[in-house]
Amino acid sequence: MASRVPPPPSRPVGTVTRGTTNPNRLRRMDRWIAAAHGAALRRADDPIAVDLGYGAAPWTAVELLLRLRTAAPRARVVGIEIDSERVAAARPYAREGLTFRHGGFEVPLPARPLLIRAANVLRQYDEDAVAAVWERLCARLAPGGLLVEGTCDEIGRRHVWVALGPEGPRTVTFAARLASLDRPSDLAERLPKALIHRNVPGEPVHAFLRDFDRAWAAAAPYAAYGARQRWIRTVRDLTADWPVLDRSSRWRQGEVTVAWAALTPRRG
């Protein structure tokens, strides 16, 4: 007998977030997505992206559409919010390629999206809840799709995110406005929920940030040429011991992307 498809939830899955948002807050994540996932969006027949939990104002969804369309002109964005009042407030900002819907982690769309971005959504959840949310969201992705989940500060100067495919987590990206950075471990306060409580001795992410700081200190002479050149030299040195996956063109943006497997939390 054929298995039954379970009915959709009768109410959105998840809890209401604080909704804090600011224009341009997610620019670093958006630009990375456009660079890393733009080709997949261009190839898709219907390149749908979801801004999940966009907050009290729709700025991040509006900006995501603009940035994705620099890489994939046919991209469409659906902003999904669990707070129905926020959805109603956002709808006047709808336009060609941009709509808003009431929902949560169930991602209530008839078609599977090629991208789900969830920024500053899981911060309020328990660490133990993250894996189930990731699994649920990844199950909603179209083939070749990407989930990007992470945390940033209020004006987007410091940001860390995890990129996941249908099979699970792939990479972790650290991004910063370099002029405001004293040392790379300043990014620790913006680690995603899956990692933030693991920044303790004996955990891989702690070792990574320790080595990042050491390489930053060793690259101090390059500060004479600017923070960007110091960062590039730092990341180049990191590649000797850590699986850095991107190239200097991304390092110049104040980014570095590392394989998730190298930072996976230890059990217990």
From TrEMBL:
GO terms for biological process: methylation. This is Class I SAM-dependent methyltransferase. It comes from the Bacteria. InterPro entries: SAM-dependent_MTases_sf (IPR029063). It comes from Streptomyces flavofungini. Keywords: Methyltransferase, Transferase. GO terms for molecular function: methyltransferase activity. Residues 1-11 have a biased composition (Pro residues). Residues 1-22 are annotated as: Disordered.
